[in-house]
Specification:
Elements (H helix, E strand, L loop, with lengths): L6 E5 L10 H6 L5 E3 L21 E6 L1 H8 L5 E7 L17 H13 L1 H12 L10 H13 L3 H5 L5 E6 L7 H8 L6 E5 L6 H4 L1 H15 L4
Parallel strand pairs: 1-2, 1-3, 3-4, 4-5, 5-6
Helix pairs in contact: 3-4, 3-5
């Protein structure tokens, strides 16, 4: 078993950037870290201040970031953490807890006309009123389509590493019914649901997330 300390790889969700991880990264400051940025507001894939990833990885995704990780899991991943996450977002005949496609279609039409308004409305629904800068339509539209069309439930079912699920019982974006429909059929996962927790647990409840993540790391990478 490797004695290298795992690098914590942070992958954010739609309409946010790498800064959403600032409180949680500070709370987990004893661990090596890397963070990606989807470029919704101008950055590149590797965010400023990130480090190259070598050795084992604990992949930590928020919201859409979990779907992105399931789609392209790092080869050296030893554990995955889902925070307010999901393998599928839109409703389907076998996933009626998802968001209706018509809702996402309306967002896509509005996004083309006024991306700043759509992004800000979504961020306010998540519980974050601050603006991040001028939104870039192409990556936002690409990943909104992913929210509409992508389905990583088969990747979740075949996930070869341990999974930690952190969810908020008052999440307006990924409500408990969606979390249960997505993850409830799996055996052996570790899951914690925070009473009164919303959609931005890495910001609003960073110490709670950090405590569970640190315990998860101790279990999946004990030699480190």
């Amino acid at each position: 078993m490797s004695t290298l300390r795992p690098t914590l790889l942070f992958v954010h969700g739609w309409a946010f950037d790498a800064s959403v991880w600032t409180p949680l990264r500070a709370a987990l400051g004893d661990w090596p870290q890397a963070v990606t940025d989807a470029g919704y507001f101008g950055a590149g894939e590797a965010a400023a201040g990130s480090r190259p990833v070598t050795g084992p990885v604990i992949a930590i995704g928020h919201s859409l970031g979990v779907m992105r990780l399931l789609r392209d899991l790092p080869s050296n991943c030893v554990g995955v953490v889902s925070i307010n996450g999901f393998p599928r977002f839109s409703a389907a005949p076998d996933f009626d807890a998802g968001v209706p496609r018509r809702t996402l279609d309306r967002m896509m039409k509005r996004l083309s006309a006024d991306p700043a308004a759509v992004v800000q409305d979504f961020r306010v629904r998540c519980g974050e009123a601050s603006a991040l800068g001028e939104p870039r339509l192409e990556p936002l539209a690409r990943d909104l389509e992913r929210l509409s069309d992508d389905d990583q439930r088969s990747a979740l079912a075949a996930l070869p590493v341990p999974l930690l699920i952190l969810a908020g019982e008052e999440d307006p974006i990924v409500p408990p019914a969606m979390t249960q429909a997505a993850f409830g059929g799996r055996v052996g996962d570790e899951r914690h649901d925070l009473e009164h927790g919303g959609h931005l647990l890495p910001v609003s409840d960073a110490p709670w997330c950090a405590r569970h993540i640190a315990g998860f790391i101790a279990r999946v990478a004990p030699a480190a």
